[in-house]
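Ticket #4471: structure output looks truncated?

Reporter: J.K.
Steps to reproduce: submitted the chain below (93 residues) through the standard prediction queue, then opened the result file.
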Amino acid sequence: MNIKRVTGRKAGNLMLYALSTCIWCRKTKELLSSLGVEYDYIDVDLLKGAEREAAVNEIMKHNPSRSFPTLVIDGDKCIVGFQEEEIRGALKL
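Returned output as attached by the reporter:
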């Protein structure tokens, strides 16, 4: 799977499932980058076939509605949508 990493300081294990054309996904990436935290992300709409199916199945474990952005923190906490205050509060800064 084409997982991209943005380097920064550790604030937990952050995985962002996004769409390349989604303004809220872009705002979430900008927020995480502005906070200087390390995170991984996948633009799900750019995946094909089995990779896309695997990403969607992973998202469904945390967010059954499969909406974007979906931010998974430490494999258990899930924040759906651009929720700036909730994201800031959930990060280990």
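Triage note (M.O.): checked the attachment and the full token line is present. Helices lie at 23-34, 49-62, 84-90.
Status: closed, working as intended.
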